[in-house]
């Protein structure tokens, strides 16, 4: 006797109207509250993201400290790392501000003398390979004559400069508040790391399914790889160029080395500081020193940007260098300095999802 075919599965019964209405109302209420919360906290979102980036970067060190000091309270470990991060940022900034204050005093004295007596053309203008006559004419018309120099420097010490100084002061106060909030958020992120990670894993599993764990892991690796490739390589470039500045006699070599390291975190940013260092040597009539700074600096930047940095960032994010560059530059243009870390992480997650859609696995090659 032939067996009867299996019965077709019954279609799911539609939700009752009241249940559907309640679901829509609940989802709408959650969306409205979420948008309201983002609107209320939007001024502090960059600080929160900075805290997350720093927490992700130092998490291996935090775990190592927890293994070495198992009896230590989480609050003490969190406080120690928060203070260490604060000092790591504030000490170079304080050094730069102190140097800048001394330079500002000397600069004001030089400007006062220039307004009274003018500024004679430096000898290096005559050695320029082209445009020396045009530069000499401009210098003679605007700086060599005391009356012209007084008019030229009037804009530097007038009302416009005082207004800009006040704006800078207000900006520093605002950024100090944001920095303090970043440290506070960093403390709680380190102290409550396990609970926060467990909550995010639960939410990602409910919302994204199995892909949630992979996306989170890729984002973490991308942030750490970007920090290694940008911050550490930038600090290395700054240290090397500081030695070069000392050897070649560039004024204020430590301050310029610090500025080079910060600028080198942005691709092609170090070239600006190299140009300033070369210009300072030109003002001192050291043409050969300026050429040496430019040549050595370009070699250091070329090796760092084309070999070391792509290996560190691309190896962690599994991205071709083109997409790393798009993530960094696009992130900087959109989010400022924070985009240095958010941009590559975002591109890494997007490329990982694309690889899964195209080839069915996240490690598939992509152009």
Keywords for this entry:
367 residues
- What is the chain-wise order of helices and strands? HHHHHHHHHHHHH
Residue-averaged pLDDT, rounded? 79
Percentage of β-strand residues: under 5%
Radius of gyration: 28 Å
Distance between the termini: 60 Å
| Percent helix range | over 70%
Per DSSP E runs of 2 or more residues, the count of β-strands stands at 0
Continuous helix count? 13
Describe what this molecule looks like in 3D.
With 367 residues, this protein is an all-alpha fold. Helix content is 81%, strand content 0%. It contains 13 helices and no strands. The longest helix has 44 residues. The chain is elongated and about 90 Å long. The protein starts with 16 loop residues before the first helix and ends in an 8-residue tail after the last helix. The mean pLDDT is 79.
Write the layout of secondary structure elements.
Elements: H1 17-41, H2 45-68, H3 74-117, H4 132-144, H5 146-157, H6 159-191, H7 193-208, H8 211-248, H9 253-263, H10 270-283, H11 287-317, H12 321-335, H13 339-359
Please provide a brief summary of the model.
With 367 residues, the chain is mainly α. The chain has 13 helices and no strands.
